[in-house]
Amino acid sequence: MVKEVPLRLGEKVMPKAPKILLSNGDYCVPQHYLTYHHTLQSVEALICDIEYDPRYVVFAAQELSGIYIQVGVVGHDNYHKKSTQKESQLKLLFGRKWRVEPELPTSEIIQSVFLAIKKSREHEVRELFKLTLNNSTTTPFNTHIDLPLMAEFYDKDQCISEPIVTTSTEQKINQVLNKINYDNSQLSLLEAQQRPNGLWLVDIKVQQIERSTLPEMDNATLYLMVDELSLNALSRALMQEFIRLSDLHVDKHFSYQGFHRFDPDIDIADIADLSQQSRKHELAAHFASEFSKSNKEIDLMRIPTVKEGVLAQKHKQIIEQFQLQMQ
């Protein structure tokens, strides 16, 4: 006799859905044979089973538009001057709200939390990159820069070009690194090598001057690949690497019920094998129609309501361009 498969809050098995026998001898009902009716209570229960860094506090709340998750980051205001900020003045700084539809699969809600943490961390990473030019320190990669203003007034032809100075490769790179401060750390060149295709491989050592808020930066070595040794190219390559290391830290340490789903140490072949076990089987005719009907209903629910207007005209042109069939 097949044991009853336990479900989480907000989950319901489709009528006549099969139970799948896994290679370890256990039975399961895969997520594609479930329907979902998530509530604030079920989302909160999922968050309780998620662990990462206690500095990233995941909230769930509900308003008229529905349920949402939001990440609060425990830290200092990055734009507060140190002279007026005491070390003990920690704040809970909130990011954007991430909407959670009631019919969203449980796994996708967990992944929404995962992505929300990644983007909250990236927001912090971007603000920690400080560039000193003309005796002024700025954070050019932060997400608060006025984008509409840039779109209206940015003129590449009028931008200030870097002066052409004949120096050694080492001097050129160090001149750039001396203008940059990242999370109170010192960046120093280890090695630079130009490949036959013209690309530069640049190895940079990170040395912490003060205690870092980002553990992945502790005595890290950065490996950059750039097409030129300019301030712009090196700065952008550095930021790309800082974000990659931040994302990797979340990959390694984010867990649900103790399982680190996104850790690179999880063998991709094992993931593929489990996926095949949950999908590689024949569906009985009496369930196949129910399964197809349920999928169509979910697809219809995801189609947005479009009102007449300028945006609707833009969408209409795209639909006609690709000759799309709307359901």
Count, helices: 8
Sheet with most strands: strand arrangement: 6-7-8
Proportion of beta-strand residues:
15-25%
pLDDT averaged residue by residue: 91
Radius of gyration from CA coordinates: 25 Å
Instruction: Tell me about the largest β-sheet.
Output: 3 strands, antiparallel
- Report how far the terminal alpha carbons are from each other: 42 Å
Broad structural category: alpha+beta
**Number of beta-strand segments:** 15
Give the helix level as a range of percent: 25-40%
User: Element order, helices and strands?
Assistant: EEEEHEEEEHEEHHEEEEHEHHH
Low-confidence stretches: none
C-alpha geometry: globular
Blueprint (SSEs and pairs):
Layout: E1 11-13, E2 20-21, E3 27-28, E4 34-36, H1 40-48, E5 50-51, E6 56-63, E7 66-75, E8 91-100, H2 106-128, E9 129-133, E10 136-138, H3 147-153, H4 169-177, E11 180-182, E12 185-194, E13 200-208, E14 221-226, H5 231-253, E15 255-256, H6 268-279, H7 285-301, H8 310-321
Antiparallel strand pairs: 1-4, 2-3, 5-15, 6-7, 7-8, 9-10, 9-11, 12-13, 13-14
Helix pairs in contact: 2-5
